[in-house]
Write a structure and sequence with these properties.
Pfam families: GGDEF (PF00990), PAS (PF00989)
Structural class: alpha+beta
GO molecular function: diguanylate cyclase activity
CATH topology of the largest domain: Alpha-Beta Plaits
Cofactor: Mg(2+)
CATH architecture of the largest domain: 2-Layer Sandwich
Radius of gyration: 33 Å
EC number: 2.7.7.65
Distance between the termini: 98 Å
CATH superfamily of the largest domain: Reverse transcriptase/Diguanylate cyclase domain
CATH class of the largest domain: Alpha Beta
Catalytic activity: 2 GTP = 3',3'-c-di-GMP + 2 diphosphate
Number of domains: 2
Largest sheet: 5 strands, antiparallel
Strand order of the largest sheet: 2-1-5-4-3
Number of strands: 12
Length: about 325
């Protein structure tokens, strides 16, 4: 049989509860506060005497009452501790954050343990809330998630233009081609490059050329639909894959894009730079054995645009690759 605690041991336990760096709150079945340790005093600005017998739900209206009471009643009914974590709800009670890194967080992130307290008669007539400050861990995890998201974006997108990089874009084309083969769905490709780009670089420098690429990419993103795949194919060459689009629809898109690029004014170090683009358009055909043939068809059409004076659009001729 366990010996009862003497008064000195009880005093030690109360000292520990007051000193630990977690919040300790004891509530009765009416959610009125019976105990409130120094952690709670320091972060709430309210002393234990001020909150005694006050309703926790009234003192902190930000608590979701139906959710919280359900959690507490479930813990009491089952006689087991339950938990809430910051990923599910950032906090139970809104406290300002005072951690060293919390320029990144205004409120304290909290994990909470809900612990039923049994009386001598073995009934649970009180519940203890243990509130942990996990702000540092939460911020570190969010920073890691943001960094991973950024790395994933960098893996899929070209660093200069922000468009899909060639590897990812070709993966998208391969999937779309497989869909075309299965469902006989339409898809078209617009392949284009910036006219006389080498001359622009030689005249104004590579940084000017980079700015022109960025602005052409921006216009391309604006013109493309959410379902389209716009990418940088390499150097000053760009591609836009248009799912569910036939050759005429792709031609209309290419013409709008060509006009937008022609009207583009690029501000660079006091200079206003302009450019045009030559474009080739091809549509998926039933006899194409692979997606590479679509790129080749659009590429041939692009070179005919260049031969025809540039700043124009050429459509791929059906079956020309078989010639």
């Amino acid at each position: 049989m366990t010996a009862p605690l003497d008064i000195s041991e009880l005093h030690w336990m109360l000292d520990i509860v007051q000193s630990i760096d977690v919040g300790v709150v004891v509530l009765n079945r009416d959610y009125r506060i019976q105990a409130w340790n120094s952690f709670m005093e320091n972060h709430s600005g309210m002393s234990a005497n001020q909150v005694a017998q006050q309703s926790l739900l009234d003192l902190f209206p930000e608590i979701d009452r139906p959710w919280f009471t359900h959690k507490v009643e479930t813990a009491i009914m089952l006689g087991i501790r339950t938990f809430t974590i910051w990923e599910q709800r950032p906090y139970l009670v809104r406290f300002k954050s005072y951690q060293p890194i919390t320029g990144l967080a205004d409120e304290m992130y909290q994990n909470v343990t809900i612990l039923p307290l049994r009386s001598i008669s073995a009934t649970s007539d009180h519940v203890c809330l243990i509130i942990y400050d996990v702000t540092n861990a939460a911020i570190n995890k969010r920073q890691l998630q943001a960094a991973n998201t950024q790395l994933q974006e960098l893996a899929l997108h070209d660093g200069l233009s922000g468009l899909l990089n060639r590897r990812h874009w070709e993966n998208c084309l391969e999937r779309e081609f497989a869909r075309h083969r299965r469902h006989n769905s339409q898809a078209s490709l617009v392949l284009f490059d910036i006219d006389h780009f080498k001359k622009l670089n030689d005249s104004h420098g590579h940084r000017a050329g980079d700015e022109v690429i960025r602005q052409v990419a921006r216009v391309t993103r604006q013109m493309a639909r959410e379902s389209d795949y716009a990418g940088r194919y390499g150097g000053e060459e760009f591609v836009v894959l248009l799912p569910h689009t036939g050759l005429e629809g792709a031609r209309q898109f290419a013409e709008r894009l060509r006009c937008s690029i022609e009207q583009l004014n690029v501000d660079y170090e006091g200079l206003v730079l302009t450019c045009t683009a030559s474009m080739g358009v091809a549509c998926m055909e039933e006899d194409m054995p692979g997606y590479g043939m679509l790129i080749e068809a659009a590429d041939r059409a692009l070179y005919r645009s260049k031969a025809n004076g540039r700043n124009c659009i050429t459509l791929s001729k059906a079956g020309e690759l078989a010639l």
